[in-house]
Amino acid sequence: MDDYRDFTKEEEKIYDSEIKRLQKLIAEGATYNDACNTLTLNDPEMRQVIADDLLKVLIAELHYGKKKSFEQIAESLGLKVSDIKNMHRIMIEDVMQTVNQGFDPSKTMLH
Q1: Phi and psi at residue 103, in whole multiples of 5°?
Q2: Were 35 and a residue from 9, 30, 42, 45 both cysteine, which residue would form a disulfide, CB within 3.0 to 4.6 Å?
Q3: Alpha helices in the chain (DSSP H)
Q4: Taking residues 79-85, what's their average pLDDT?
Q5: Is 73 exposed, middle or buried, given 0-12, 13-18 or 19+ CB atoms closer than 10 A?
Q6: C-alpha–C-alpha distance, residues 41 and 29, integer Å
Q7: Cβ–Cβ < 8 Å for 68, 24
Q8: What gap in Å lies between CA 111 and CA 98, rounded to an integer?
Q9: Backbone dihedral region for residue 82 (phi beyond 0: left; psi -120 to 50: alpha; all else: beta)
């Protein structure tokens, strides 16, 4: 998609590693912000992409996978409900953009 960043192979490895590491921190009880504050990448755009995608993944897992309400998700992650709702809206917009442009499974959808 035009407004998504294309990562190099090395950036993809870093991205995947950081997402997994942050998910582990959250599973161990860290808040979303505490976990994201451990990102030490020099590239602010990449840090933001990882933080945003992490929240999207968490919402998908917790809301759609575990049937948690936005309120429960916000409480468990230490965020405002409005933050969760806003990111969920962005997720839906991402899906609609993908549908409107035609889905290409060879392209990543997260960044």
Answers
A1: -75, 130
A2: 30
A3: 9-27, 32-36, 44-59, 70-77, 81-101
A4: 98
A5: buried
A6: 22
A7: no
A8: 12
A9: alpha
Task: Give the span between the Cα atoms of 54 and 110, in whole angstroms.
Answer: 9
Residue given tokens 């991205």 in the structure block? 15
Quote the tokens at residue 73.
């998700």
Q: Residue 37: how many CB atoms within 10 A of its CB?
A: 11
Cβ atoms of 81 and 71 closer than 8 Å: yes
Q: How confident is the model at residue 1 (pLDDT cuts 50, 70, 90)?
A: very low
Placement of tokens 């409900």 in the chain = 81
Q: Are 47 and 7 in contact (CB under 8 A)?
A: no
Structure tokens at 40: 């030490």
Take residue 39 and report the two structure tokens written for it: 């990102």
Q: How confident is the model at residue 100 (pLDDT cuts 50, 70, 90)?
A: confident
